[in-house]
Amino acid sequence: MFLPSPPLSPPPVDARTGRSCDKRYSKPPPPPPPPPLVVTNTMKQFVLIAVALVGLTSAQFPNGRTLDAPNPALCASRIVHERAPDGKGYFFSWRDPTLRGVEKDWLDARNFCRQRCMDSVSVETSPENEWIKQRIVEGRQKYIWTSGRLCDFKGCDRPDLQPTNVNGWFWTAELQKLAPTTVRNQNDWSENGGIGKPQPDNRELIQGGAPENCLAILNNFYDDGVHWHDVACHHVKPWVCEENDALLKYVKYSNPNLRI
């Protein structure tokens, strides 16, 4: 059973502008117009959470690529292929007839999900992990992206994240730290990979390529079963989206007349 880890602190925000102090982070969506009713503390928390999630992005992607803000129209028309026992909705890219054979890199996959008030899947518990893995096998997919990522941007030099290859992995969709990679019974890292080492192994960087800073689930790719692997983020893969409560609440609050 995966045990919960403390949430990862969002990047610092300029109190005057509401924007991240790090230019590599994306610009948060504009605040909603003043509502006719009194704004409760709960509503404020919803907006702050959504802004924090929109603000987090990666330094690895060039050309000014950033996370996308949710699109209200796409949120309202989002497709849910299946709901988990807890009621949360999931989208599987290979089940959409218009996306069969389509693969995206880690950031594009997240943006597809986020535009629809979803995010790349974060497998935070053993039951969810097994549930997702079963769908991968049933769908005959070789691999998928998750929201998992190594902390590799400004602020990742915090003592509690050192060394980052052990303590710096987190679910970006939830800003939730993963258990240390050395605590093998609290995660699902594979015991094998491209160079015969337990994951994460940063194989591509060792072999002269890009750092393996993103987390994918591979389906017996190395004759190792269905497990987590660190993979360079520019590779393209199918993806799974899951509904994101913070983004849904933000869009509902910002668009009170829209049925989400």
Strand order of the largest sheet: 6-5-4-7-8
Beta-strand proportion: 5-15%
Spell out the CATH superfamily of the domain at 72-252: Mannose-Binding Protein A, subunit A
Low-confidence parts lasting 5 or more residues at pLDDT below 50?
A: 9-60
Explained architecture:
The protein is α+β, with helices and mostly antiparallel strands and 260 residues long. The chain has a domain at 72-252: Mannose-Binding Protein A, subunit A (Mannose-Binding Protein A, Chain A, Roll), CATH 3.10.100.10. The chain is 23% helix and 15% strand. The chain has a five-stranded antiparallel beta sheet. Strands 1-2-9-3 form a four-stranded antiparallel beta sheet. A hairpin with a 6-residue loop joins strand 7 and strand 8. It is globular and about 55 Å long.
Present the secondary structure layout:
Layout (H helix, E strand, L loop, with lengths): L40 H15 L16 H5 L5 E2 L5 E4 L13 H9 L3 E3 L5 H13 L4 E8 L13 H4 L1 E3 L4 E2 L25 H4 L7 E6 L6 E6 L8 E4 L1 H10 L6
Antiparallel strand pairs: 1-2, 2-9, 3-9, 4-5, 4-7, 5-6, 7-8
Helix pairs in contact: 1-7
InterPro entries: C-type_lectin-like, C-type_lectin-like/link_sf, C-type_lectin_CS, CTDL_fold
Organism: Anopheles farauti
Keywords: Disulfide bond
Descriptive terms for the model:
260 residues, alpha+beta, Mannose-Binding Protein A, Chain A, five-stranded antiparallel β-sheet, four-stranded antiparallel β-sheet, 7 helices, 9 strands, globular
